[in-house]
Amino acid sequence: MSVSTKPASGFRDFLPADTARREYVFQIIEEVYQSYGFERLDTPCVERLDTLMGKYGEEGDQLIFKILQRGEKLQRALESESPSDTDLADMGLRYDLTVPLARVYAQNRNSLPRYFKRYQIAPVWRADRPQRGRFREFVQCDVDVVGSKSMTVEAEVTAALAQILKRLEFQGFRIHLNHRGVLRALISVSGIGADKETDALVAIDKLDKVGIDGVQKELDERGISAASSATLLGILSKFKNPSDAEFSNENTLSLLEEHLGSDEDGRQALSELSELLSLAKSGPAAASLKLDPFLARGLSYYTGPIFEIRSDDFSGSLGGGGRYDGLIGMFMKEDVPACGFSLGVERILVLLEERQQLQIPSANADVMVALWDADSAPECIKLAHELRASSLRVDIYNDFDKYKKQFAYADSRNIPFVAILGPNELANSVVSVKNLKTGEQSEVARREVAAFIKG
Amino acid sequence: MSVSTKPASGFRDFLPADTARREYVFQIIEEVYQSYGFERLDTPCVERLDTLMGKYGEEGDQLIFKILQRGEKLQRALESESPSDTDLADMGLRYDLTVPLARVYAQNRNSLPRYFKRYQIAPVWRADRPQRGRFREFVQCDVDVVGSKSMTVEAEVTAALAQILKRLEFQGFRIHLNHRGVLRALISVSGIGADKETDALVAIDKLDKVGIDGVQKELDERGISAASSATLLGILSKFKNPSDAEFSNENTLSLLEEHLGSDEDGRQALSELSELLSLAKSGPAAASLKLDPFLARGLSYYTGPIFEIRSDDFSGSLGGGGRYDGLIGMFMKEDVPACGFSLGVERILVLLEERQQLQIPSANADVMVALWDADSAPECIKLAHELRASSLRVDIYNDFDKYKKQFAYADSRNIPFVAILGPNELANSVVSVKNLKTGEQSEVARREVAAFIKG
Questions:
Q1: Least Cα separation, residue A182 to chain B (angstroms)
Q2: A16-45+94-354: CATH homologous superfamily?
């Protein structure tokens, strides 16, 4: 057989042991989101290409999996001179869950509540080069509130995230917090023009990876004047490598105030951050929120507070989000304020597995019914139905093999009990129940088998 | 704004009221599957094109959504002379869940148990022309057992399906049951050669829609001799429009025995059907299994028993399945017996909605915390966290509006209670709780609010 049986490159199969862990984690996330009043939204995996294109920057657009046109339309596209990928394709796999949310909100605005609080736990696709730990299909767990500019939104979203990580027994994570207005003000007071704002943002975003010197180089290359970069880096360097004790959120706030207080954007941003910290003070995120003037986050659609989950014991982030008051306006005539977070659940799953954290409830059956021969098989199947009626998960063995072989099979499946109803048991109106942990075999009255197994 | 905000043609958004119903139904299906010892498998939405092509017949291959090549590979494909869609695309969206199962089984055979009993509840895609009730993305709920030829497999699979339909409060459904060996024998004893078997099957499959005359015409057109079609239709007409009482499964079996008993395939098939009926006799499917010598089912990969769910009060089927002992052999060196069923859950959801069947638990919050002003907001958020810690689902209102407006909002969201913690309440160490059903407002000690709401 020449056909490969592997999944496509960058895609994964999840066998039952994996899906049990994954579903367990998804369910915890879903429970927490629901406890905050978020409701589930499902959007199609496939979107019109014009919905997706132009929302993620040039690099993002390249990473959208595009779906080939069909029939006549494909023929027509092929007949045109040097057709591009957007001629050959009409739809694409969604790249994230935020742009579909914006589209759905614009489409259903009139039937949606004033505050649209939705979560979505679903796969997204990116045509990235596959590598260790980077997949082309992965699940995102998003939570967003559309319809309010209030910092209570940020407080609730960050609290829900912290609560999820606590339920998943993560220790010592931090929610890094910054504000696009702080970054804009930083850039402005450094004398960098609005036309170079994005360039400066991209450079600052790399501080963690390339250090002050690297950022300096990047700013030079992007044509920002020496005087401006000196001012910008001068301010930023005051926050670099401080001891935690010295740099409480209060200290960071007042240091920012000192440098940015002259800028209106800066004052507004600092007042929002201060309000958010006060609203979060007594909630699950209180101890985790960490003001970080370096945090920039790549996506261009953020407008207000931005956040990202990090921890010392893993590199990179477990998810990020922020306020994007302009994105929905790309789909309708007016801007609608919105803020959300996307939890990188694949990464969380890898960490949980590495740490063997969490007691995942067994996905296996509670009992297996053995088979002896064709004559007794119908009664064995009937017994299985009886036990299911008592809320047990019941597997049956499907062929007529020696009991020893059947016990070994059940044991290999981690099924704790085997129920036997052969000719002897039928003659005596009992069921033999084998406990595979103790090896003990007991004769039990048929109507008492379920209770016996439940212990 | 010129961008459409509709989903792509043939695709659907599910707003929270829809997702609540859908998730509730999926959960019932999942619970029943698990109670039969089935475990969850997840496979990627995207498969290599060579995994998908050639498994569904020519018509099926046409309906696979194909994913455009990227970068250099796309350029190379475009430079070739008259590139076909399989040159331009390397992957596709899965068309069903059975072929991916076969691939996964072949790939993981050594680590899988002797009986691989898996379910999968997941979307599939077909590039069909969208029309009322026919979508291009829809969820299938599949259950399959790989690794046994025993009719206990068919008995368990059909029992699980019947149990799901009962839990969903469907009345009067039937599981139509036939066997590919019965059809093969019918064709053989009618003197139709093996080379015309598929043609005859396709014709028989249309009996329900086009009647005996239509099938006659189809057989003629497909070059089957007049004598052979007369024999075939002569046998089939004995089963046409019988009263139910006259045509019990026993009667159908003996009539088939009478006509097909001379054929070895036929004898084997009838003995398997008879065994299945006996194994199912005391289970949830017992009253629903209905032998139907006309049932053919389109897919070419079926080899043994085949089934389909129907009912008088809707046209078409709610799902179908059967034994396919040859499919996995397309992916590995040896054949592995397998049997499964695919439940058409989208159709079930439409019917449930039309009938307003099932009490779906509310997806809304149990209580909404109102906001008064910036000073009291942190304490309101804290109250929300306290109530969540008591396992309540708690929404908060996000802006500072008049309470009357906030009550109206909560009421429109079907949230039964509003908790108020304004300056007065804070001064008196109480919380005001408004019951929106009765209109009654009560002052409650803060630590008793959760208990008060839970009633």
A1: 22
A2: Bira Bifunctional Protein; Domain 2 (3.30.930.10)
